[in-house]
Amino acid sequence: MIGIDDFGVELRGRVERMERELRRWRVAGVAALSAAIVAVAGAMAAPAARELSVETLRIVQSDGRERIVLTAVPGVPDMTFRDPEGHSRLTLDIAGDSRPVLAISESTRAKGRLTLGIENGSPVLQLYDREGVRRVTLGVPKDLGALIRTYDESGKLQGRFP
What we know:
The protein has one helix at 4-44, and strands at 56-60, 66-73, 76-82, 88-94, 100-104, 114-119, 122-128, 134-139, 147-151, 157-161. By secondary structure, it is an alpha+beta fold. The longest helix is centred in the N-terminal third of the chain and has 41 residues, at 4-44.
């Protein structure tokens, strides 16, 4: 027969084994949780994307006003730089007829004050008055050499050389 002292010893042994086992489970749980945290942190620290695909990218200053706008809308891809008041100052554009154009504007005018582009494979410089009306065109057509055109205040051709 098992005496009370033997029962107490056996019970104490079982309790000690359970406590050791519980400590092992705690250590294993902490190790598993630590490994999970490291795995999640590693996944979050993935390298930055090397490509950004958007149709329009607007870069704004701290108050939300646009400063640079990159647009890839079909038929109208361009890059526009704006002054602090939001007026377009410089635009690099592919015109509707696929001609590249660089337009420089005065801050208070919506119309270009100066444009540089290509027409029929030749460079063209156009100057506008304060009202945004084209007044002078300088070009170098392939068949004519240098070309200068002047326009009146309504934009009608006034003179041409040659």
